[in-house]
């Protein structure tokens, strides 16, 4: 992450340790572009990336827009809870029963302590798993906290 003095000190790491204790109610914030929104204000599938999705932890943010520092304030913010992330999905395709586990990892940067990843643990995630993951996430209550400019 960039070295920018406009980032508030409360968002900087300042020697704080990694904290991988997440409550199921904790919100995760993600930047979104105007291309991430459908005409009905629902999110497109591009709003969640694989195999790793970069987010900011609500536990260490004062505002959903903290994810927009240092210079992304023209973008929007979407959020969902840790508990809305599917724990595991099974491929169930052509006798292929691979399991895809999902979790959240706190990956703080020096200038963005809340930075985290929603991970699948696989470098390649089949389209059918990505689609099911996104559907389950939407059904669990992903929300738009700020629309892109």
Specify the structural class.
Answer: mainly beta
Number of helices: 1
- From N to C, what is the helix and strand string? EEEEEEEHE
Provide the β-strand percentage band: 15-25%
Q: Low-confidence parts lasting 5 or more residues at pLDDT below 50?
A: none
- Widest β-sheet, arrangement of strands: 6-7-2-1-3-8
Rg (CA only): 16 Å
- Summed over residues and divided by their number, the pLDDT gives a mean of 90
Q: Any idea how many domains?
A: 1
Shape: globular
- Report, as a whole number of angstroms, the end-to-end distance: 23 Å
Helix-residue proportion: under 10%
Tell how many strands the DSSP assignment holds: 8
**Could you give a short account of the major beta sheet?**
6 strands, antiparallel
In short:
Helices cover 9% and strands 25% of the residues. The chain is mainly β.
